[in-house]
Predict the structure.
Amino acid sequence: MVAIIVKNLSKFFEVSRKAKMHSKSKSNGDNSGKEFKAVDNISFKVKKGEIFGFLGPNGAGKTTTIRMLTGVLKPTIGSITIFGKDSRTESLHIKQLIGNVPEEASVYTDLSGWHNLLLIGELYGLSKEERKNRAEYLLKEFELLEKKNIKAKTYSKGMKQRLLLSMALMSNPEILFLDEPTSGLDVQSARIIKEIILEYNKNGTTIFLTTHDMDIANELCHRIAIINKGKIISLDTPENFKVLVQEYQAIDLSVENGLLKNEIEKLNYINKVQEVNGGYHIIVDDIHNSICEIIDYVRTNNLKIKKLITYQPKLEEAFLKIIERGGSK
Amino acid sequence: MNKSVDYEMSKFRSVGTQIRRSFIITKKDLRIYYNKPPVLIQGILFPLILFVALTIGRNIQSIYLISGMMAMILFLTSTSLGPIVFPWEAMQKTLERLITCPISIKTILLGSMWSSLIYGILFSSIPLILGSIFSVISLNFNLLLIIVGMIVAGLAFSCFSLILSVPSSSTPGSTMVFTILIKFPLVFMTPLFIPIVLTPIAYISPLTYFIDIINVSLGDLSVFGMFGILIDLIILSLLGLGFLFLAFFLHEKTLEKRFQS
């Protein structure tokens, strides 16, 4: 089942005279007219139960897209359908189904964590009993129960972000939109948030996630779309993205009794060997098989390994490569 | 046939839900904004300062003293909260979170309107209560008419305040300056603390119609003749509705500007 269908979606913003003078470098595409294209004709589908990553450099159009999906901005062109409901005609129905953690958003700092949650619960139409039970459960889950009656202005950034996520989960949404949920957070808060995203996804919640943290995207996302200058330039699984940067599979090796470069080059799966600080930096085609080959060779020749470090291709490298190319694989 | 009835019913239920949810916004606004500096300055400090400035050393009849104070306080307090809600929420970065809840922009505005009304009525009742306690006015005033007048005028003023928050600023300070520039001339156009003399300027100010209602409720005669109170109520209601729909229209048009980054 498809949770989100985005078809030919575009968002143009009017450019004020002042902004025109200052933002030539910030715009996506043509900035010569009265409008600039923040999002330019994008289409994609998100399956139910999927964690869908939306990556891109600053100013690429991620936040504008998420704002259109959550009903904050209206699309200039194109359509958004969420669980079969059209965002133009059934936006309130859609809002009832979603939870949202906007980028740099804040909680009501004059209210306690408890009252922030009750307020959201009330706005989603939960009964008094449901509100209290759900708020209690979420505060416990997010390790905020001890401070539930204290005004949120005293909370740390990580605690505020956890409260914000718990507010988004108050209505037990079908889809959760997270715009940079772990940006600038301490390790503990980031870990809690990551675990809860996985937990809710396991229980069937669809997650739409934008992040700059490639490790999180790699770890959590089932599929990733890369957006740049308002256009989606690539969409695939993290594994398939990493195939693009196979050359980043490498081994650092140094052996006690010495080992000749040409001997390593003769082994299978070895692509390139470079001498580095008395050892070798070996670029390989297949990391697992090449390790086996090296170890077999070392054993057969009674050599002793001093250092062996492996390097796997990273999503970050694939991302940078795609952005540099400015197009799909 | 059944389908269209279902559609109408769901639309009706949805309107009911949104009105109910607007009261949740009201509760939130009253809880958060009642003690914010712009609200305290415009809602409490300004009426006090203006009252002292406009009455000191003058021989004012008790009816006009009470009606003038009530009108000034109702106008200034009920227009103090509405204009700061949007800029404050934008500044605190809570607006986007609120908008993605299953409520429309109209619901948020209605919520602000109710909270402005409650705030205004609470404070403008003080002169009437004090006047009654200290026997400044006779106790056989028309309480029902005063209540109706306060609600209708309070709603009109609150709706007016929603228009003042249209400029898409995220700095409550600049919104405050803008609202002062609009509100003060209206106060000075109104025949406060004196019998109403209908000059073209007095017609423009919505406060004039409210003062007329209070004056009549306290025993004075309406300056609008036979249909005086009715005219006052109709004009205030029409103004309120006009301001409300204009606020809906303008806010829906300018909302996106708050999120252009």
